[in-house]
Amino acid sequence: MLETLVPQPEDKILKLMGMFKADDRPNKIDLGVGVYKDASGVTPIMGAVKAAEQQLWGAETTKSYTGLAGDPGFSTAMRELVLGDAVASDRVAAAATPGGTGAVRQAFELIQMGNPEATIWTSRPTWPNHLSMLKHLGAKTREYAYFDTETCAVEFDAMMADLGAVAPGDVVLLHGCCHNPTGANLNAAQWRAVADHLVAKGAIPMIDIAYQGFGDGLEEDASATRLLAQTCPEMIIAASCSKNFGIYRERTGLLMAISPSAGATGVAQGTLSHLNRQNFSFPPDHGARLVTMILNDDTLRGQWQDELEAMRTGMLTLRKQLSDELRARTGSDRFGFIAEHRGMFSRIGVTPEQVDQLREKHAVYAVGDSRINIAGMNAETVPVLAEAVAEVIKG
Ligand code: LMR
């Protein structure tokens, strides 16, 4: 049997990770995988997380199973973080998952269980693993226009035109904030228009929110998700704690399903637990417990918010610096959008060949679609990157 397997396509982000590791040039710059790094290139354990781990080490008395949907305290804390009081809690079913990716994967399966006929709409472009998982599951998919590669901004009119073809019961996957890979996001009026459109069409929004707190702030980054929750009768949300708590390897995420009325929540909750049981049984607990402790303790929460805010503002400073350095070197405003984009990524709009040149000649690693990880830079490497980009676009 195993001899009949065929090689699977490599994930381009993970492939780049391997290439960067194997490169022995000392000046190499990693702008590939979406992992936050501080100015010294380290992915730090946040102080609030360390403090919670220390407390947990003293207080934890058992490693027995939690519930199939994880610890209810985690679901409550995360529901409040993401949704605030946008929707009555008795309409929200929730289950802990292995990371945000686990939540996305379970969400796709939930959709297939609820409505096998539903088409799942994704932005063009989207996080490549969305497409890969959808293909793996044999889901019906369509794309909607999102990013104008000329202006490096959202092409909203084209997006709405494509979403005109959404059918009742279809699911539209949206990035709650900090769009990955582009860094270009809808404004409040555009979100309002999308929400109204989905209601009019009888379509269901699915939000992937993996970078809450990395864009405009914790509350601001949740505002689109909350608006949709207030507007649409049904909704699915996949939330990740990997980035904003810096607990990537703990695999901590939450899937939420909002039903039109409290009466439907019980079956939705049972279905989320059932899906966990089928795929991996009980979800990981360590990261979820740390998140719960941090969100429920004023001191830890204050420390965490300060640390997260420092990460966010640091990335904004780097965006501005890169945009300024590129303006100075190219004599044009072509890269002004980098300062306007939000989150960990921007797609800087150079060609795949130029991305190859950046890597081969300048040891700068970016994803082939020209996505760069803003947190992969620091004040010293921004001018180096700007120089390299200016050189490759000159040809
Ligand atoms: C990314 O987009 O780089 C991150 O979400 C990490 C990953 O798993 O791809």
From TrEMBL:
GO terms for cellular component: cytosol. Its EC number is 2.6.1.1. The keyword Transferase applies. InterPro entries: Aminotransferase_I/II_large (IPR004839), Asp_trans (IPR000796), PyrdxlP-dep_Trfase (IPR015424), PyrdxlP-dep_Trfase_major (IPR015421), PyrdxlP-dep_Trfase_small (IPR015422). One of its GO terms (biological process) is L-phenylalanine biosynthetic process from chorismate via phenylpyruvate. The keyword Transcription does not apply. Residues 27-389 form the Aminotransferase class I/classII large domain. It comes from the Bacteria. It is an enzyme of class 2 (transferase). Its cofactor is pyridoxal 5'-phosphate. One of its GO terms (molecular function) is L-tyrosine-2-oxoglutarate transaminase activity. SUPFAM superfamilies: PLP-dependent transferases (SSF53383). Belongs to the class-I pyridoxal-phosphate-dependent aminotransferase family. NCBIfam families: PRK09257.1. This is Aspartate aminotransferase.
